[in-house]
Specification:
The complex is a heterodimer of chains A (about 140) and B (about 140). With about 140 residues, chain A is mainly alpha-helical. Chain A has 6 helices and no strands. Chain A starts with a helix and ends in a 10-residue tail after the last helix. Chain B has one domain. In chain B, helix 2 crosses helix 3 and helix 5 runs antiparallel to helix 6. Classes of the chains: A mainly alpha (about 140), B mainly alpha (about 140). Chains A and B meet through helix 1, helix 2, helix 3, helix 4 and helix 5 of A and helix 1, helix 2, helix 3, helix 4 and helix 5 of B.
């Protein structure tokens, strides 16, 4: 089971993204267009996902360890600092400009559009650049 | 107001996937972190599986349900480059994206994630408002 857990959970997540409309850039831009032609549908995506994680996460974390791993790998930092705000702010601008956040951009590779490959290439370049510029810290245990 | 059932169902699947990944491998389903880890972390097998699953899962939904493939963005390609770079830098500097902060982080009641989510939602809304004001979307 452990061997294909990543694949199975990825399949579910990708199916959810495609079903929800998150992989449609015009839908996402419409959701962010609160002061224009606002399309509230994606609020229900967030709501549905959060209903599950808000209820399920405490139950899962009440276990001593995960089913197929030695320990939970959770972020260590609790600091609300400038880095968090700056990073979130830059990410939001990029999200609004094109309409993809990372998950939908990866899932949209299924649609075979060159622009998606270009977006992802630039995204990975940006991730690399952030490290080179010394703007990142590791927050994970293990 | 009627509840949009299909987006809600999509959201439930996303939440379920996140919970199952936490329950089995003890990992946060933050896609920006998974993508970067797939390229930079020695423990990459499950990450590549997850990334492949994202593509296959999206493909399967359209193939099985007949749901139309979304029309590609008609924004100019240089915009994809700028947006991609900002998303890449921002998610690493801010340690997460819509999934890691918005779904998993808020799910475990992380104050950091609540602040991050409010921040990227706000700048996303402002960005689209500016695009609209500038006549770049209609």
């Amino acid at each position: 089971m452990k061997g294909i857990t990543g694949l199975l959970t990825g399949l579910l997540f990708g199916a959810g993204l495609a079903l929800s409309g998150m992989s449609d850039t015009s839908k996402v831009v419409g959701f962010l267009d609160i002061f224009g032609a606002w399309d509230p549908d994606l609020m229900w995506v967030m709501g549905g996902a959060l209903a599950v994680t808000l209820l399920g996460t405490p139950l899962v974390l009440s276990r001593a360890k995960p089913v197929l791993a030695a320990s939970f790998s959770l972020p260590l930092s609790t600091a609300v600092d400038r880095r968090l705000i700056l990073g979130g702010a830059l990410f939001g601008v990029g999200w609004g400009l094109w309409g993809y956040c990372p998950g939908p951009a990866v899932a949209a590779l299924a649609y075979g559009e060159l622009s998606t490959v270009i977006f992802l290439g630039a995204m990975i370049g940006g991730m690399w650049l952030a490290g080179r510029l010394g703007l990142t810290v590791s927050h994970l245990k293990n | 107001m009627s509840i949009p059932v299909i987006p809600l169902a999509g959201g439930l699947l996303i939440g379920l996937s996140s919970i199952l990944l936490l329950l089995t491998l003890g990992r946060i389903a933050g896609i920006s972190g998974i993508v970067w880890g797939a390229l930079s972390d020695p423990d990459r097998s499950w990450r590549w599986q997850f990334v492949s699953g994202l593509v296959a899962g999206a493909f399967a939904i359209h193939a099985l349900t007949g749901r139309p493939i979304p029309a590609p963005s008609d924004a100019p390609l240089f915009m994809a480059v700028i947006a991609g770079i900002l998303v890449g830098i921002g998610t690493r500097v801010g340690s997460g994206c819509t999934s890691g902060h918005g779904v998993c982080g808020i799910g475990r009641r992380s104050v950091r994630s609540i602040v991050a989510t409010c921040t990227f939602m706000a700048t996303g809304v402002v960005t689209v408002a500016l695009l609209r004001a500038g006549g770049l979307i209609s």
